[in-house]
Amino acid sequence: MPTLVMKFGGTSVANLDRIARAAKRVALEVANGYDVIVIVSAMSGKTNELVGWVDETSPLYDAREYDAIVSSGENVTAGLMALRLQEMDIPARSWQGWQVPVKTTSAHSNARIEEIPADNINAKFGEGMKVAVVAGFQGISPEGRITTLGRGGSDTTAVAFAAAFGAERCDIYTDVDGVYTTDPRITSKARKLDKIAFEEMLELASLGAKVLQTRSVELAMRYKVRLRVLSSFEEPSDSAGTLVCDEEEIMESNVVAGVAYSRDEAKMTLISVADRPGIAAAIFGPLSEAGVNVDMIVQNISEEGRTDMTFSCPVDQVLRAAKAMEDAKTSGDINFHDLVTDDGVAKVSVVGIGMRSHAGVAAHMFKALHDEGINIKVITTSEIKISVLIDRKYMELAVQALHDAFELEKAA
Ligand code: ASP
Ligand code: MG
């Protein structure tokens, strides 16, 4: 029997009615001839509530107990989904992560899946079970303790099961009907994409298009798991949602697939640092130790023997970054004249695999921003992405202008 993985996010299992709706979808796929592995999230809001209880009880909590508590929301929805399916006369049972077992590292609250042996579940399929309902987000460490995979981790559970069982596809049911060219709240011209390449989705996911956990896309790309993102609130149809797939499956695509943004960024510049071998390591080592997520980096020569170093990070990490730099200065590891912080910037990016074969994308982007009078503060590029930092107050305008400039409202 071909296998299908179906993952239902928190809003799709938010109450008993929604679980019943989701179960009907599962029944359709069983009728289509699939053995189905259903991965469920906790009911929406549940995980946040559990995290809140942990914080209230023990601010400096033991991460193993955090995982034991926070993983429990998924146990409830897995059991309820299995019961609902049984009520529909579909042979189904639930599995908690450790029962499969989903073997992970021991990095509590942010564990990685290492292995999912398929034999237990396959044996049950062999005995006539049609649906295995698995609690997402959780696993078991080599020490035998419960682990969780980081917030949003049940997407990653779903992709990992699809890879481990050689599933035909992994359908991710959520409350949006697919992946858009940009955030529809910023421009009504945003268009749902029928298909998007793994690499593009990876850039969009990590740039803040919050449909999929970034790690799930990495995993899908590595194992070539075809992912479909679709809404559980719409009527079933073959063309529903967005297929995230290998670029070879995409015949026609626009040069730019989408415009992404990240609103709360900050730009920090160390002015006039002594220019010597090891200086970058001396700056970014302490930043990383302080837990600062540095994104863009620009180094510029200022005067003979001196250099300016600019980097960006999330705005809520500015104080930590500044302290790390002042401490490094005090201890004599680096020396700089000034540290200038601009905490009012946003990042806007255009992403598309078509950039590899098309020249002039950057020029086109910069002209569109110039036409709106928007000043660019930092630019970085990769093979399939161009990002700029601009004043936060122009972010929406920039997204709209770029969406228009690359005609993303039109399909390729
Ligand atoms: N329930 C977990 C969370 O809210 C995992 C998930 O839903 O993906 O992060
Ligand atoms: Mg999610």
UniProtKB/TrEMBL annotation:
GO terms for biological process: homoserine biosynthetic process; lysine biosynthetic process via diaminopimelate; threonine biosynthetic process. Pathway: Amino-acid biosynthesis; L-lysine biosynthesis via DAP pathway; (S)-tetrahydrodipicolinate from L-aspartate: step 1/4; Amino-acid biosynthesis; L-threonine biosynthesis; L-threonine from L-aspartate: step 1/5; Amino-acid biosynthesis; L-methionine biosynthesis via de novo pathway; L-homoserine from L-aspartate: step 1/3. Residues 268-353 form the ACT domain. Keywords: Amino-acid biosynthesis, ATP-binding, Kinase, Lysine biosynthesis, Nucleotide-binding, Transferase. InterPro entries: AceGlu_kinase-like_sf, ACT-like_dom_sf, ACT_Aspartokinase, ACT_dom, AKii-LysC-BS, Asp/Glu/Uridylate_kinase, Asp_kin_monofn, Asp_kinase. GO terms for cellular component: cytosol. It catalyses: L-aspartate + ATP = 4-phospho-L-aspartate + ADP. Its EC number is 2.7.2.4. The keyword Transferase applies. One of its GO terms (molecular function) is ATP binding. SUPFAM superfamilies: ACT-like, Carbamate kinase-like. Substrate binds at T47, E74. ATP binds at K7, F8, G9, G10, T174, D175, Y180, R185, K210, V211. NCBIfam families: asp_kin_monofn, asp_kinases, PRK06635.1-2, PRK06635.1-4. Belongs to the aspartokinase family. This is Aspartokinase. It comes from Yoonia sediminilitoris.
